[in-house]
Amino acid sequence: MASVSSPHRKLLHFLVYWAVQRCRVSESPCRLTFSLKRPAESASPSQLRVSVSDTGVRSKLEEFLELNDLARETPVEKWDGTLLITTTGINDEAIYRYRFNLHEELSSARFSRLATTYKNHATFSGTEVCLCLSNEADADDLILWLVGFFHKILVLRAANLACELFVEQIGNAESRNVCLPQDSDDVHHSVMASSSDRLVSGLKDYALSHGYNCDKCDTCILNRDLLKTGTGAANNVDRRKAKGAHVEVVILIARTASDLSCWAVNCSSTQVLYFEDFVPCPISKSSFDVLVSVDWQSYGFKLKGGFIDDEGNAVLEWDDMPFARVDIAIHTYLECAMQECQGSQQDRHLVRKALKSALSHLKADHAGDFLSCHGQRVREYVPDLAESIAGLILSSNDKEFHDECVSLLGLGSDQDISEELVQSSICEKMIRIIELNDTKENVEDNAPYLFECEKLDEDSQLDEEDRDEDMIFDF
Q1: Which of 102, 234, 295, 343 has a Cα-to-Cα distance from 141 of 20 to 30 A?
Q2: How far is the C-alpha of 403 from the C-alpha of 401, rounded, in Å?
């Protein structure tokens, strides 16, 4: 699991990560709740009280031993290393409570068992972890990070997992709770939808709510279907153990600034949303290398460069951006929660495969919008070439030649044939052929004829003059 920058964020990220994995293991509908209580005055000596709870399987104390390094990095005045853990399994008769102090060197002093409560034949499972953090001046920044973090969690629309974030200001008669519920503007969202479809739905909601901004404009919501979507997936399954690594990629395009009026100014950069095991994470080095090394030009994008920001997010910068906005989400996860990672080389291969698949999907559905840079340059010459060919056809005094060309263009002989009509027909055919041959899959096939005509009998003998005329038609 990747880490984030500040000690507080690393700690909270860790607690949410393991809560999500416990919910995944349960394979039952679960709820993840994050609660933060802060004093009314930032200068108050009172601490930030944090609670992370889930209704997944019972936790294992070994999970929290991974916090040893983080506890050593964090000064005692910021976090005293103490965790209060409450947990129970679905088949347990009791609710168990523990105190864990990771700053204690002696193992006998760092762990203690607290009073046990019995469930009285009730059936439920779950874990709650409580701790206190120092109430520093950056508490507001921490809360903003939490809101953004949970917005990203909701992008995945994880099946059978409901997420809640509560921020409560205490010690003030006028204080009120701030709740971030899970909702969606996608009326077609289905409980039975695939994880890829859920990611598409979540990314659309994230993009149309303008990223971190919760305020949504009516224009965005109404223009949801105008977004162009490309999806790709790759997996490497270990059949012997029924386990495997999966990667899903979604690319979302707002084609022009006029598609979404609130995005009037085109965005020349993209912050890539990266997820590991259903939790937002800083991007891995191998995945970032894939992002900046993919042949974006083959799909109509001009990548200026990329970098990883202070929070570990990948940012791609575009040159001569033809789109209003590009949103990208990458999700890598293991088939079974809490299993060991498969290694960066495999991740790199799967991310590349899924990313290229998503780009190919975009190109297949919207060929004219995602021509390669070479294809775009070729297309620029089409109007002039079509005009020249139309002029040659209509300037001929040979009626038989004239009628044959009109027929090959699919224009009826009884139509009023104008130069504009002939030029438009030629232009459409040329563009269609350019689009068909702009993918690697089509390069190996014979390019289609510009004008469709019957193939000549193999036994036909043509003199040199007829063969030259045939070559012109076939072009």
Answers
A1: 102
A2: 6
CB atoms within 10 A of CB 379: 17
- Helices 419-436 & 373-380, crossing angle to 10 degrees? 170
Q: What is the mean pLDDT of the chain?
A: 78
Scan for tokens 């030629």, then name that residue: 426
Distance CA 57, CA 125 (A): 6
What are the phi and psi torsion angles at 398 (to 5°)?
-85, 105
pLDDT of 235 higher than 60: yes
Separation between Cα atoms, residue 209 and residue 461, nearest integer Å = 68
Above pLDDT 70, what percent of the chain? 74
Which pair of tokens denotes residue 199? 């990611």
Enumerate residues 6+ apart whose C-beta is below 8 A from 245.
235, 236, 332, 333, 334, 335, 342, 346, 347, 350
Q: Which amino acid makes up residue 217?
A: C
Instruction: State pTM to two decimals.
Output: 0.79
Is the pLDDT at 32 greater than 90? The verdict is yes
143's tokens: 């809360």
Give me the residues paired with residue 163 across strands. Answer: 32
Tell me if 305 sits within 8 A of 317, measured CB to CB. yes
pLDDT at 325 over 60: yes
Q: Which two tokens stand for residue 346?
A: 């495999």
To the nearest 10 degrees (0 to 180), the angle between helices 195-208 and 139-155 is: 140
Contact 370, 295 (CB under 8 A): no
* 3-state percent helix, strand, coil for the chain, nearest multiple of 5: 40, 25, 40
Provide the pLDDT for residue 457. 47
Assess contact for 188 and 140: CB atoms under 8 A.
Answer: no
| Residue 19 β-bridge partners | none
Please name the residues in contact with 146: beta carbons below 8 A apart, sequence gap of 6 or more: 12, 34, 36, 165, 167
pLDDT (0 to 100) of residue 343: 57
Question: For position 167, what pLDDT does the model report?
Answer: 84
Asked if 142 and 8 touch (Cβ cutoff 8 Å), the reply is: yes
- The residue with tokens 């290393």 is 81
The end-to-end CA distance of the chain, in Å, is 56
Give the tokens for residue 251: 């690319």
Q: Given CA atoms 220, 226, 230, 231 in this order, what sign does their dihedral have?
A: positive
CA–CA dist 394, 417 (Å, integer): 9
The pLDDT assigned to 274 comes to: 96
Per the model's pLDDT, the better-predicted residue between 171 and 252 turns out to be 252
